[in-house]
């Protein structure tokens, strides 16, 4: 059995001096950020083949690659100083806490590890995601509120026989998926160009934005009060289902033809794929009560929905869940177009006014997310096929696969990625082995999946 061995661990800091007079020296957290104090960080990583030494002589050895990644990471932190900081908690007179990000440049954790005997094929060829992939990510088991003492960003570069896996763990109070890949894209850009004139294509906007939140920090109860809300997840497996551009077009056309001819509504490609997946999960779950309610929670971005939209490069959280609820009977007696239409209706309701009403209500009664509240009879979809995953070239070629870590995994966690080929979508499904194995035998579902 392959074992992971840590070769070295160090702290990477920004080379740029701290500007103690900067307006972004201390960044107060918004309701979007504060809701996530007790959940896990974001964990995403990319698998690369090793560079060809004949084509990349400056990266001919592992030590040279690691050195290049460390230097470029330090340079990238010049633009993303909050990632090298820590969360600061301040106790208020009413026995509540307020939180901010202190851009203190305490540094990012960087680990170089090796997995002797493990190849790229060992990661991408098995039907189910190998358990060892979870060990490719640092800070496993850490919660976001622990950012008061733990790094807000940790990187682990795991060397395989013929490849590298670059895994990143980012505190979810600091960044959402859009911001996570903004950082990753910027890091790979700086590493690839190796220019003395350091710039990034999309500079981050560090100031947090939220109405009525700029005058004073928000008061919330201690996140530790929510830690007794634990649940024991069942044994889980993960599988990546690949949907080609052609199959996605078929699913979308089918869904739009099934629900009617209302030209004001157009089911999206992603809604069609998720509806197809949702029906299969319910079909394949054993012991399902036909009248039992099931929900599909979808994490949607607020950036373009706000008026005016958030500025390009806004770095932070700007997402919230929408909830699509139905019974197993309704879901299975109707076609996939009906299921996709339910998603479409709920997502269409998320206007500027709806978002503002929700969070202004939240301000009156701040509520931190509890894990057990979101996992019962639920699928939860996060991430997006719009994120630039496969454009991350650090200087020796593009990645060949993307995987996520153990953070926030439960029965029903659905992670959405763009596919390796343009227009494709990959769905990383985390479910019980029984459900996942049954889906592999579900001819109706697998008919749209590229094996």
Structural overview:
This protein has 451 residues and is an alpha+beta fold. It has 2 domains: 5-225, Chloramphenicol Acetyltransferase (2-Layer Sandwich), CATH 3.30.559; 237-447, Chloramphenicol acetyltransferase-like domain (Chloramphenicol Acetyltransferase), CATH 3.30.559. The chain has helices spanning 31-34, 62-77, 120-124, 177-193, 245-258, 269-284, 328-333, 336-348, 352-364, 371-375, 433-440, 443-446, and strands at 4-12, 26-28, 42-49, 86-91, 97-102, 108-115, 153-159, 163-170, 237-243, 293-301, 319-327, 378-383, 401-404, 413-418, 425-431. Strands 1-6-7-8-3-13 form a 6-stranded mixed sheet, with helices on one face. A hairpin with a 3-residue loop joins strand 7 (153-159) and strand 8 (163-170). Helix 2 (62-77) packs across helix 4 (177-193). The relative contact order is 0.18. This is Acetyltransferase. Keywords: Transferase. Pfam families: Transferase (PF02458). InterPro entries: CAT-like_dom_sf, Sec_Metabolite_Acyltrans.
**CATH superfamily label of the largest domain:** Chloramphenicol acetyltransferase-like domain
Straight-line distance between termini: 27 Å
> Which shape, going by the Cα principal axes?
globular
Indicate the percent of residues in helices: 25-40%
Rounded mean pLDDT is 91
CATH architecture of the largest domain: 2-Layer Sandwich
Low-pLDDT stretches: none
Class from secondary-structure proportions: alpha+beta
What fold name stands as the CATH topology of the largest domain?
Answer: Chloramphenicol Acetyltransferase
């Amino acid at each position: 059995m392959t074992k992971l061995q840590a070769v070295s661990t160090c702290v990477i800091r920004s080379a740029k001096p701290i500007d103690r007079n900067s307006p972004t020296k201390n960044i107060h957290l918004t309701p979007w950020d504060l809701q996530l104090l007790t959940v896990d960080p974001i964990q995403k990583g990319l698998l690369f083949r090793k560079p060809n030494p004949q084509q990349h002589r400056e990266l001919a050895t592992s030590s040279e690659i690691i050195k290049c990644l460390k230097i470029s990471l330090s340079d990238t932190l010049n633009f993303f100083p909050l990632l090298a900081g820590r969360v600061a908690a301040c106790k208020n007179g009413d026995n509540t806490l307020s939180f901010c990000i202190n851009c203190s440049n305490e540094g990012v954790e960087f680990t170089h590890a090796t997995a002797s005997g493990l190849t790229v094929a060992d990661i991408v060829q098995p039907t189910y995601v190998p358990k060892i992939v979870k060990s490719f990510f640092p800070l496993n088991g850490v919660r976001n509120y622990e950012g008061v003492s733990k790094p807000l960003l940790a990187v682990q570069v795991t060397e395989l026989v013929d490849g590298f896996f670059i895994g990143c763990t980012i505190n979810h109070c600091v960044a959402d998926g859009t911001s996570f890949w903004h950082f990753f894209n910027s890091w790979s850009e700086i590493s690839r160009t190796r220019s003395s004139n350091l710039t990034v294509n999309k500079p981050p906007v560090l100031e947090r934005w939220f109405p009525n939140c700029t005058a004073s920090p928000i008061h919330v109860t201690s996140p530790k009060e929510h830690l007794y809300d634990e649940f024991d997840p069942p044994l889980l497996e993960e599988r990546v289902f690949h949907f080609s551009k052609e199959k996605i077009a078929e699913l979308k056309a089918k869904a739009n033809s099934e629900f009617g001819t209302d030209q004001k509504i157009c089911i999206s490609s992603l809604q069609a794929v998720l509806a197809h997946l949702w029906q299969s999960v319910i079909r394949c779950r054993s012991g399902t009560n036909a009248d039992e309610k099931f929900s599909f929670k979808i994490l949607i971005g607020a950036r373009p929905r706000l008026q005016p939209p958030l500025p390009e490069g806004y770095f932070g959280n700007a997402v919230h869940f929408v909830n699509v609820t139905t019974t197993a009977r309704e879901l299975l007696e109707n076609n996939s177009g009906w299921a996709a239409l339910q998603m479409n209706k709920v997502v269409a309701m998320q206007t500027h006014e709806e978002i503002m009403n929700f969070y202004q209500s939240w301000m009156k009664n701040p509520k931190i997310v509890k894990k057990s509240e979101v996992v019962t009879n639920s699928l939860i979809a996060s991430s997006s096929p719009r994120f630039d995953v496969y454009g991350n070239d650090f200087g020796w070629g593009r990645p060949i696969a993307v995987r996520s870590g153990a953070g926030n995994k439960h029965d029903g966690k659905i992670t959405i990625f763009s596919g390796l080929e343009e227009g494709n979508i990959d769905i990383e499904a985390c479910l019980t082995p029984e459900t996942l194995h049954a889906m592999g035998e579900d001819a109706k579902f697998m008919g749209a999946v590229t094996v």
